[in-house]
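hey m, so remember when u said the tokens were messed up on ur end? i reran from scratch. heres the input so u can diff it against urs
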Amino acid sequence: MDGRSDTDVATWPAEIHRLLKAAEVRQMAYVPDAGHTALINLFQADRDVISTVLTTEEEGVAIAAGAWLGGQRSVLLMQSSGVGNCINMLSLPAIGRFPLLILVTMRGEWAEFNPWQMPMSRATQPSLEAIGMKVLRADTAEDLVETVAAAADLAFKADQQVAVLIGQRLLGRKKW
């Protein structure tokens, strides 16, 4: 048993996509990640949203800044290991006081096979909080939809920088 149901896997990406569209998100930036694949595919198929593949996560922070300055809302998708890559760039939304919404798929947790994922997994939440971001976490599909809705409100209605950590158990066991 990998800790998730087929229903969870099939429904939460569509619910998150619907919710972010309702929150008027018009840009999505991402580094390719298996945990976000279904959500990425939904955004890429959506003609109303600009999808940008990144070479590194900090580029997504700059895209979010540009989107906001241009009058659009965005979401940044990354893996927990990517948080370490962009921690310095996260000073941009903090100092510029613009909203930022990041969805972070966690690695280095439940049923992890790659020991290289462990250190950043432990450091993800404390690092984000140290830079001043609000961090929310979801470990079930039901909690994830509700948590992303709350995070979008915090980001776009209260001009906050918010990261939602998506627990590895929800994503399921990686298979290589």
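this time it looks ok to me. The helical segments are 6-22, 37-45, 57-69, 80-86, 91-96, 118-130, 141-158, 168-171. if urs says something different then somethings off w ur setup not the seq
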